[in-house]
Structures are given as structure tokens and as C-alpha cells.
Amino acid sequence: MAAQTRALVSAQWLADALRNNLFGPKLRVLDSSWFLPKMKRDPRAEFAQKHIPGSSFFDIDDCRDKSSAEDHMLPTCGHFSRYAGDLGIGNDTHVVVYDTSDFGSFSAPRVWWMFRVFGHGSVSVLDGGMRNWLAGGHPVTSDDRKPERAEFKATLNASWVKSYEDVLENIRGEKVQVVDARSAGRFRGTEPEPRHDTLPGHIPGALNMPFTSFLDASGKELGAESLSKLFREAGVDLEKPLWASCGSGVTACHVVLAAHLLGHPGVCVYDGAWSEWFKRASPENIISEGK
Q: Residues 74-78: contacts with CB within 8 Å, 24+ apart?
């Protein structure tokens, strides 16, 4: 099934699956909402109040490397295997992820990427998220039933994950394109970062493609032609190696998803992202127009 899995599924497709009682061991739906502290939203509390029937909550702040000082770095294979299994997900389960962001999609592509980097290709993002699910008049519930545990075996594709050292080496060699998915102001250094211990700016040589640029006015992913134009206008050649970054490794995955939809599934993620880079990089490797 993994080979045929679409990276995006529509709200109508998921509603039909719900109506036909297809949710279960072969199809699991995850609310993967996560918000920056400044947004003052509690995704777990919101899930308890309202979610797509039959879905479970996936917490990227829980399923992470808790030994790292950085936010929600990838967990170990064992941790991810247990976490996914506890959500009723096996290696033959089709996973659909969504979030409740006003953007339509914010953190869901991160969890889509997490499953893929841990060897599970049968995963899709709900196009337009909860925003479009509600706009379509589809049902929600507060009923939360814990799924029956399944066995999941994760296998990490380490080549898709880049470290601070990898990015630093690339500055010297300039062999790989790096795209930053933060807003233009944060990238240029003219708008503040949401984390109090981090100033804005960007990695030398990086290109800026704000994650919101991949979405249309309704919060759905742009079509292939528009996505191709975005990459082209940003100066990105999808035929060449590409790494994605952002603030903490979440919205970088929008770059990965967009490239995947265009037939380029191998975009890598700098997991520590700008929050790590700012703390560790020397001053000449922090590019900013700000004061």
C-alpha cells in the first residue's frame, strides 16, 4: 500500500472513509497540532474538546529526543516505535495527519515527515487540515477512545536528517541548497523570533520560502504548477540536493512535502534548525539585516 499512498488526502476522502467505517488498524488519523508559545493555544486541551471522530493526538513535544536541549528533535527508533504502536499504528497502517492551525496546515507536515523518516511511507496529510474539514461540514467529537495497541517497527533513514555540523560543512563547500521556511522578516532579521533566547537572521547562503507560500487562501496545498513556480522563483533547482530549515524543524517539512508532491522525495531536514544554529554559530555565520 505504501507505494500508492498519496501525500495529500482531501477532507471528502477522509469523510467517506469515516462514513464507511474504514477507521481502525488499517487507517489511523492523528491530530498533530502544535503551536508556538506566543500563540497561547493548548492543542491537547483543544483535542479533548473537538477532533475528527476516531482520531488520536500525536504530541511532537512528547515524541522527541528528551535528552536534547533543542525543541522536539527526532526521538530514537525505539521511542518512535513505542509511541506509534501505542496509537494503534502498525507497519501496514495508512496514517493520515492533520492539525488545527488557522493556516490550514502548520505542524502536520512535520509528523508526516517523521513517519517517512522512520521508514513508514503509508502516510498522508489531510489537505487544508481541520479548517477545511469544518468548512466541508464534516463531523467532530469530544469522544476519545484509546486504540488497541499495535506493533510498529521504525527504521531511521539517517541520510534525511542533517546536523549543525553538516550545515556548517556545507557553508564551506556550498554543495547543497538550503531553504528556510520562516517568514521573510525573521529570515532577514527585521522581525523578532518567537523564542526569547534567539535573535532573527539566517544561515549563510540560505534561500527563503515561507511555509505559508505553499498554501492557498483556503489553507490547502497549491497545485503542482504553482509549487514549481515558487521553487523556480526562489532560485531552487529541485534536480539538485536540497535541505530544509526553519525555527525548530517543524515548518521546514512544508518544503519537504512540496518537493515530494513535485516528484522529489529526498529533501533533508536540518532538525536543530535556526534555534540551534543561532546558539552555536559564530557571528560571521549569522546573517541579519537587523540591528
A: 74/114, 74/117, 74/156, 74/161, 74/271, 77/118, 77/154, 77/155, 77/156, 78/154
